[in-house]
Design a protein that fits this description.
Strand order of the largest sheet of chain A: 1-2
Radius of gyration of chain B: 24 Å
Oligomer: heterodimer
Helix content of chain B: 55-70%
Helix content of chain A: 55-70%
Largest sheet of chain A: 2 strands, antiparallel
Shape of chain A: globular
Number of domains of chain A: 1
Order of helices and strands of chain B: HHHHHH
Distance between the termini of chain B: 66 Å
Number of strands of chain B: 0
Low-confidence stretches of chain B: none
């Protein structure tokens, strides 16, 4: 029971009064910022990073755990009460959740989301505690070639699978890798892309880049398209659920958890696919099919659980392999490095107490969310009415403050503005931001790994695939690159269409592939059987 | 098809070509920079500092070309939505440019005038740019927020933000 005793030690660390206080602050701050429209969990963590700088790493990560789950929870509150989700992972929750709220059942929707999040988060965190050490055991047996292959897989999977246009994903990745190149080369000490500017020699601070892309870019983008008519916010009282609601919720919670965790743990799995899968599963299994589309509680309970289980799943590769697979994990990884902690398979060995304290505080944060947020829901709902000028001026203000406090250099603020403008442009032209952030974080590490690998093989490129696992992973990478369109189908197949055709339609997609993104209309969503050959592209 | 109006009309709505241009420009910069690096032959580092920059430059240039082709053929990136985003009206530069201006003012002011002054300017100016018209109230809020963060960072986090002109008073 090695895991168990380590976890108990983690609880002992996390439950000291000061650390517990940080967990509470993290949960409250995370939820508050997460509820605010336009602020997702990634931006929440990025904005609050500087606040944690003065803390010692353990306390800081305990706070992050709270911010992470709090931000997730806050996002779902917004999507239920506003119906225009900011986060792709809460798109599905909004479908039924907002209908429920409009039908006067906001209290039940929020309750099933909160309790479902708690159930899924707890099970997901337990799975994380059990799985991560196993993954670590496997990972430390891997040599440099295999580890490098895994990094390539994570990077390309996120780029190629997520988002509607692969071409734009790769463009974003290229920009990220270029940003990652800036600074002194670790091996030869040569300055790359510094243009003779000594302040660039240490490279661009990843925290500054993250704040610029997530906070400044977003604030400028929203400012350019600010909704001038105030949105309708549904008033809400104390969340509660009746007996019937419980009966209809518990199975979707568990099914959502089962779908969410594995997808979250995969590179590029993310929360979008499992939340949608959970939705169609519940829609098919429900005893109240007539309520779907009008506010069925199962349609909130399942996806919300899947969302939170995926959030826990994401932490598995992040902690065990040092690979972030979503934006929030990427920002947390940046926080690790800014504390001088090396992410990777050795993390559990070198920083064992910290990692276990982090996992323990995920349990604690989850529990706190439940007891804090059920009574506080009406307060959170009020936050939605914050006048928008104050909200976005505040984001810019705190982004500036955070980026400046890293090095106390005005030069960083110039970087913040330039990269923020880049973030604005990417939002305007549909370039996904995640590949860029991952490129900045993983690019330098990938280069280091490549040089190490080839050093071992004395410059022979065959050293890159000298291990069987590396070969297998490169084959997977090749498959992903050639045939990534399952995901596109899932997106287009979104709830309105018949869910039956997902597996059948896959081959069709390979033909309708077009990097114009939404320009193609995939007919396969309504093709009920194998009679939908590739030619069906012509059918509208 | 050579007169300028028709060229303009062909370029209209194709502003995304600018993205391709940017990708290409970054690619060229990375390439030129990489060529300028010296690689001493070394047994311990067969890859050298140039390899990855070459790969990145290649990726960027290929993306630039493919994106240009894609856009000319009518492809379009999907602009990102959000809770407060209304994509039905065009980008409102009268909001964005003043915001950027206030931001630049803060960069220029922060080391000289100090955070309390530059932060006040930043917050108040951003509010103004975003359409708030409560000048006095906003000014008070901005000053209070700047003072609060200044002392909060100093006392709570041990980070001394620049006091600037108010050195000695704060």
């Amino acid at each position: 029971m090695d895991v168990f005793s380590s976890l108990m030690d983690g609880f002992a660390t996390a439950l000291t009064p000061m650390n517990f206080l940080y967990a509470v602050i993290g949960v409250v701050l995370g939820t508050a910022v997460g509820v605010l429209p336009g602020l997702g969990p990634a931006m929440t963590v990025a904005l609050l990073l500087p606040v944690t700088y003065a803390l010692e790493p353990t306390s800081a990560f305990i706070m992050f755990a709270g911010i992470y789950y709090g931000g997730m929870y806050g996002g779902s509150t917004t999507s239920i009460l506003l119906n225009t989700p900011g986060e792709s992972s809460s798109v599905v929750t909004a479908i039924e959740g907002n209908k429920m709220a409009k039908a006067g059942r906001a209290a039940q929707a929020l309750a099933t989301a909160a309790i479902g999040s708690f159930v899924a988060g707890t099970i997901g965190t337990a799975l994380l505690a059990v799985c991560a050490p196993i993954v670590v055991k496997f990972a430390v047996s891997l040599g440099a070639p295999s580890y490098m292959a895994i990094m390539v897989l994570a990077l390309l999977a996120v780029t190629a699978v997520l988002g509607s246009s692969r071409l734009r994903g790769f463009a974003s990745l290229g920009l990220g890798l270029a940003i990652g190149l800036v600074g002194m080369d670790a091996v030869t000490g040569q300055r790359r892309l510094t243009f003779g500017q000594p302040l660039l020699a240490d490279g661009l601070d990843i925290v500054v880049v993250a704040v610029a892309i997530f906070a400044v870019g977003e604030a400028l983008w929203v400012a350019a398209h600010l909704r001038r008519t105030p949105m309708q916010i549904i008033p809400v009282g104390q969340p509660w659920m009746g007996k019937e609601d419980w009966k209809r919720s518990w199975k979707p919670w568990l099914r959502g958890t089962a779908l969410g965790f594995p997808f979250g743990a995969l590179p590029a799995g993310g929360a979008e696919i499992p939340t949608f899968l959970s939705y169609i599963t519940e829609k098919r299994l429900t005893k109240h099919p007539e309520e779907f589309g009008k506010g069925a509680i199962e349609g909130v309970a399942g996806p919300e659980a899947a969302n939170n289980a995926a959030a826990a799943g994401t932490l598995t590769p992040m902690l065990a392999l040092g690979l972030p697979t979503n934006a929030t994990a990427a920002v947390m990884l940046a926080a690790f490095t800014s504390y001088g902690i090396q992410p990777g398979p050795q993390l559990f060995a070198t920083e064992g107490p910290l990692v276990w304290a982090l996992i323990a505080s995920l349990f604690i944060g989850n529990f706190l969310l439940l007891i804090i947020n059920l009574p506080l829901a009406p307060v959170w709902a009020k936050l939605l009415q914050l006048p928008r000028p104050y909200l976005y001026a505040g984001i810019l203000f705190f982004a500036t403050l955070g980026a400046y406090s890293v090095n106390l250099q005005a030069f960083d603020l110039a970087i913040l503005l330039v990269v923020g403008a880049l973030g604005f442009m990417m939002r305007r032209f549909g370039l996904p931001v995640l590949p860029l952030v991952l490129g900045v974080i993983l690019g330098p590490r990938l280069e280091k790994q490549l040089r190490q690998t080839l050093q071992l093989s004395a410059g022979d490129p065959a050293g890159l695939w000298s291990e069987p696992i590396a070969v297998v992973i490169y084959i997977i990478v090749a498959v992903i690159l050639i045939w990534p369109l399952l995901y596109k189908l899932w997106r287009r197949n979104r709830p309105a269409a018949a869910p039956v055709s997902v597996p059948v339609a896959a081959p069709v997609a390979a033909v309708t592939r077009n990097d114009g993104g939404h320009a193609t209309n995939v007919p396969s969503a309504n093709v009920p059987d194998r009679n939908g050959p590739p030619e069906s592209k012509e059918q509208p | 098809m050579s007169s300028s109006p028709s060229l303009a009309s062909r370029l209209k709505g194709r502003s995304e070509l600018g993205v391709a241009l940017l990708l290409g420009a970054v690619g060229v910069v990375v390439l030129v920079d990489a060529i300028g690096l010296v690689t001493p032959y070394s047994k311990t580092d067969p890859v050298g500092p140039k390899t990855i920059p070459f790969v990145v430059a290649g990726l960027l240039l290929v993306c630039a070309v493919l994106l240009a082709i894609n856009v000319i053929r009518g492809g379009q990136g999907e602009a990102e939505g959000g809770e407060d985003v209304d994509l039905t009206h065009p980008a409102d530069w009268k909001t964005v440019l003043p915001l950027a201006g206030v931001f630049i003012a803060n960069i220029l002011l922060i080391d000289w005038a100090g955070w309390v002054i530059s932060g006040t300017v930043l917050f108040w100016g951003s509010l103004l740019a975003l359409g708030s018209r409560h000048y006095v109230r906003d000014g008070l809020i901005a000053a209070a927020l700047s003072l609060l963060t200044f002392y909060g960072f100093y006392l709570g986090l041990g980070i001394a933000l620049p006091a600037g002109l108010l050195e000695g008073i704060l």
